[in-house]
Amino acid sequence: MHEIERHRIILAEADERPIVTLGYLVELLGVSEATIRRDIAHLHKQGKIKRVRGGAEALHPPSRTSLVGRPYSVNQTINTRAKREIARAAVNLCKDGDSIIINGGTTTYFMAEHLRTRKMQVLTNSFVIAEHLLKHSKNVVTLPGGTVYQEQNIILSPFPNDVSSQFYASYLFIGAQGVSPQGVLEADPQIVQAEMKLINQADKRVLLVDSSKFLQRTNLILCPLSRIDYVITDDGIDAKSEKMIREAGCELIIVEPKTVKSEAT
What positions does the domain HTH deoR-type occupy (predicted)? Predict the structure, then answer.
């Protein structure tokens, strides 16, 4: 990953927490602690961040006017190769004529690339997924009504009975902020509310997460793992997390090692 991208991610993480530790950034970016220290020192010198013992702190923690979580533009640069292969495996579950629901996110977004030659009914709350499918495929696309959250590129409705409540699908595809023994984790209550409306509106529920999500924790549980039918991840998943998924009764799909390469430099 280029230095400029690392700096952008570090700034976004500091604004989010607003204190971010060296250990967390090492795991997230896949580089050495020495590299992270140099990055923080550089950003501190530029007056963009405050260097503190063991990590970094935002200069001006923002007031919350958007959803909790990293912006879409930042997430899009993390573990891209793994996400593309996870998305490919997700699309391989589908067949022409299916009705599917795709929740917004950077991993689910890559499903749109592999849906170009398919003909399905697609409900999505992601306007970037909808735009891609409308421009590059013959899928029929439905968008729910609601508020557009530009940083995350998703649409969320505050109303219990929007168009999504009338849509039933063969598969529901979701991402997550984290995965733990407690279940599928999200960071924002509005996202949890939106996904809870859809959890029972599909025959099968499919969780798309790259292996880094098994190291992340948030304070909101979307659903227990027992509610998930398939978990698709990359070969970086650790043995403990793999056991956790299988014991929950989920079918685990791990993308082939040869298709996922490290992007850290």
Answer: 3-58
Asked if 157 and 176 count as a contact pair (C-beta separation under 8 A), the reply is: no
Per-residue pLDDT tens digits for 96-115 = 999 999 998 889 999 999 99
Q: How far apart are CA 77 and CA 79, in angstroms?
A: 7
Q: Which residue has the tokens 């509106």?
A: 201
Q: pTM for the whole thing?
A: 0.71
Q: What single-letter amino acid sits at 85?
A: E
Residue with tokens 């409308």: 134
The reported pLDDT for the residue numbered 236 is 92
User: Do you find a cis peptide bond into 181, omega within 30 degrees of 0?
Assistant: no
Bridge-based pairing of strands 19-21 and 55-57 is antiparallel
User: Which CATH class for the 74-259 domain?
Assistant: alpha beta
The third-level CATH classification (topology) of the domain covering 3-63 is: Arc Repressor Mutant, subunit A (1.10.10)
Residue closest to 9 by CA, chosen among 49, 53, 64:
49
Q: Supply 146's token pair.
A: 């609601």
Distance CA 142, CA 117 (A): 18
Enter the tokens of residue 34.
């020495």
38's enclosing H/E stretch is helix 33-45
Question: What string of DSSP letters covers 44-110?
Answer: HHTTSSEEETTEEE-SSPPP--S-SS--HHHHTTSSHHHHHHHHHHHHTT--TT-EEEE--SHHHHT
Return d(Cα 10, Cα 32) in angstroms, integer.
14
Other C-beta atoms closer than 10 Å to the C-beta of 26 total 16
Q: Where are the domains of the chain?
A: 3-63, 74-259
Q: pLDDT over 90 for what percent of the chain?
A: 52
